[in-house]
Amino acid sequence: VTDKKPTVVFVLGGPGSGKGTQCANIVQHFGYTHLSAGDLLRAEIKSGSENGTMIQNMIKEGKIVPSEVTIKLLQQAIQESANDKFLIDGFPRNEENRAAFENVTKIEPAFVLFFDCSEEEMERRLLSRDQGREDDNIETIRKRFKVFLESSLPVIEYYNSKGKVRKIDAGRPVEEVFESVQAIFSPKNE
Ligand code: UP5
Ligand code: MG
Predict the structure, then answer these.
(1) Is the pLDDT at 184 greater than 80, yes or no?
(2) What ipTM is given for this predicted complex?
(3) How far is the CA of 90 from the centre of ligand 2 (A)?
(4) pLDDT digits (tens, 9 = 90+) for 50-63
(5) Ligand 1 binding site (Cβ under 6 Å of any ligand atom)
(6) Which ligand is nearest to the CA of 174?
(7) If phi over 0 gives left and psi between -120 and 50 gives alpha, with beta otherwise, what is residue 48?
(8) C-alpha distances in angstroms, 135 versus 61, 145, 162, 168, 183?
(9) Strands (E), 21-82
(10) Beta bridge partners of 112
């Protein structure tokens, strides 16, 4: 175990913008470990943890789970991993998430991938996804969009003002989006 800080890339974008899909591709090509905050929270519900019911209710309402909970899960996953390069997918979702993560972990992202996609396209993708996610119904999807616009976009703006955002047109087919992603991760760029 070393104290060396891991390399972290935040992967942000609206619900259904393709964060999970593209992270799986990045893992294959660039040796990162993928940490989806949403997946970690859903695993916490399944594990029957004492926070499970609270997390489940918040996800059903499209609300942002208290940052202590999410940060603890992310920190555990980072510590348990032998890797030192992480894609943190779907976090931070608001300013408080962002500030708390920096304060607790002292980690600043190398850069932020932002998957930019229209709501129309994201809605189409989420409604045709068949993973049995409790938040993939039209009522919850609308709430997720609203929270993204009001709380998550300001985080992207914050990192944009620091020159850290790599914005990608995520409304195209998966392979085309990944070509743009690859260009960002290729050694000449970082
Ligand atoms: N698809 C993907 N790319 C495509 C493309 N280019 N063309 C056509 N189809 C494409 O993709 C979604 C669907 O679209 C899939 O069927 C895919 O095949 C297809 P996916 O890669 O899953 O998109 P993603 O952006 O990962 O969508 P997801 O639904 O996971 O995004 P959310 O941000 O809504 O979900 P997340 O799991 O991050 O969070 C869920 C909830 O957890 C939040 O609403 C919140 O309540 C809670 N949460 C917190 O409270 N705090 C956190 O830090 C994180 C989550
Ligand atoms: Mg996802």
Answers:
(1) yes
(2) 0.99
(3) 7
(4) 999 999 999 999 99
(5) 13, 15-21, 36-38, 41, 58-59, 62-65, 70, 90-91, 93, 125, 129, 135, 144, 173-174, 177
(6) 1
(7) left
(8) 8, 12, 33, 25, 32
(9) 33-36
(10) 10, 165
The pair of three-digit structure tokens given for residue 110, joined into one six-digit string: 């190398």
186 vs 177: CA distance, rounded Å: 15
Is residue 142 marked as binding?
no
Asked if the model's pLDDT at residue 189 lies above 70, the reply is no
Q: Which residues pair with 116 in a beta bridge?
A: 169
> What pLDDT, on the 0 to 100 scale, is given for residue 187?
76
Tokens of residue 79, six digits: 């510590």
Strand order in the sheet with 85-89: 33-36, 85-89, 7-13, 111-116, 165-169
Q: Are 155 and 142 in contact, with CB atoms under 8 Å apart?
A: no
